[in-house]
């Protein structure tokens, strides 16, 4: 495939993915797999398991791309949630795992080759610092779910708030983070 010559805007890529375009899925894998693998590996801490989770994640993306909506976030965020949930599911299913808290450290520590579409600014982002700048009502559930591996239900129980409230606070916090992360990237692309 001459995938190195092809570039997609996110909306165009999603449209092609929804028509089951093989070249679009190859592009998706080529440009997103390294980033997702890095996150998965931080959670499962085993290269073979991480590769399995990555494959399962892409299968789920392929099967459920029709349910993706850009109104709920970027394609990468949607895929990241799928990969993260798959990784946590694998840990929970693995009876040999003694780890009780799943940690997902800063994005800057991920070791992978990013696709050409990613700005150098992405490498310098410190997720924990950005999250720490959020108001506590949004920061705390995000930290529980994304840094400590809690499910939404477990976070709701720990915080003694309804599940819908936790999900709403996380969604609002992620929207704020999205703006914080992607505004510098968009400004750099315009420059």
TrEMBL record:
All copies of domain RNA polymerase sigma factor 70 region 4 type, residue ranges: 126-177
GO molecular function, one term: DNA binding
Positions of the RNA polymerase sigma-70 region domain: 28-96
Short name of one Pfam family: Sigma70_r2
InterPro entries the record matches: RNA_pol_sigma-70-like, RNA_pol_sigma-70_dom, RNA_pol_sigma70_r2, RNA_pol_sigma70_r4_t2, RNA_pol_sigma_r2, RNA_pol_sigma_r3/r4-like, WH-like_DNA-bd_sf
Key words of the record: Sigma factor, Transcription, Transcription regulation
Any GO BP annotation: DNA-templated transcription initiation
Keyword Transcription regulation appears in the UniProt entry: yes
SUPFAM superfamilies: Sigma2 domain of RNA polymerase sigma factors (SSF88946), Sigma3 and sigma4 domains of RNA polymerase sigma factors (SSF88659)
Keyword Transcription: yes
Family from the record: Belongs to the sigma-70 factor family. ECF subfamily.
PANTHER family per UniProt: RNA POLYMERASE ECF-TYPE SIGMA FACTO (PTHR43133), RNA POLYMERASE SIGMA FACTOR SIGZ (PTHR43133:SF62)
Protein name as annotated: RNA polymerase sigma-70 factor, ECF subfamily
Organism, scientific name: Dyadobacter soli
């Amino acid at each position: 495939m001459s995938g190195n010559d092809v570039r997609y805007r996110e909306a165009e890529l999603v449209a092609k993915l929804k028509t089951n375009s093989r070249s679009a899925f190859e592009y998706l894998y080529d440009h997103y797999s390294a980033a997702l693998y890095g996150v998965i590996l931080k959670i499962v801490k085993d290269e073979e398991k991480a590769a399995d989770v990555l494959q399962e994640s892409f299968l789920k993306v392929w099967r459920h791309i029709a349910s993706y909506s850009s109104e709920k976030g970027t394609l990468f965020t949607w895929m990241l949630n799928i990969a993260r949930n798959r990784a946590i599911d694998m840990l929970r299913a693995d009876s040999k795992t003694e780890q009780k808290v799943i940690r997902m450290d800063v994005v800057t520590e991920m070791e992978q080759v990013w696709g050409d579409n990613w700005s150098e600014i992405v490498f310098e982002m410190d997720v924990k610092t950005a999250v720490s700048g959020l108001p506590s009502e949004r920061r705390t559930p995000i930290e529980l779910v994304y840094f400590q591996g809690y499910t939404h239900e477990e976070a709701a129980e720990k915080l003694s708030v309804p599940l819908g409230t936790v999900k709403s606070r996380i969604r609002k916090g992620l929207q704020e983070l999205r703006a914080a992360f992607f505004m510098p990237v968009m400004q750099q692309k315009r420059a």
